[in-house]
Amino acid sequence: MKNNTHITSISDVDNIILNMDKPHNTNFHSWIRNQNNISFICIYKKHIFLSYIDSNINISHGLNWMMTFWTPIHISTFISYVFHKYINDIPKYTSLIYDITHHLDINIILDILLIILHQSNTQYISTFLDHFQLLHQNSHHNLKNEFFTKI
User: Fold this and answer.
1) How far apart are alpha carbons 4 and 119 in whole angstroms?
2) In whole angstroms, what is the distance from residue 13 CA to residue 28 CA?
3) Would you say residue 81 lies in a domain?
């Protein structure tokens, strides 16, 4: 999937993985999408995700496809573990999280952000939410107010 210029949707990813599974008689398609495999995915596949990101290759369709049926706690765990190295680069970190969550319902996004930011100080949270809101500028939601209301 290194050359993702033809990947324009989650269904593209689905077709690619299914076609990859067929000749090898494997079930990677269902395995990688199973949130119960998160420990293995985070520990043993983290370097793959980071190599794409560090090469500025957009893998958001692949990640969205992978996490389609995951709960907010599993999505948050993945983000926190795999993207931890970007935590101090707030623009990059918020951009990665936005790419994974922008298509989700606002309440699910807020749940994910609450989990990710639960141990952060107020200044970090405020700065993070300001950057995240910029990415969500077409949204009618005030994420910062909604976030602090949920706490």
Assistant:
1) 35
2) 12
3) yes
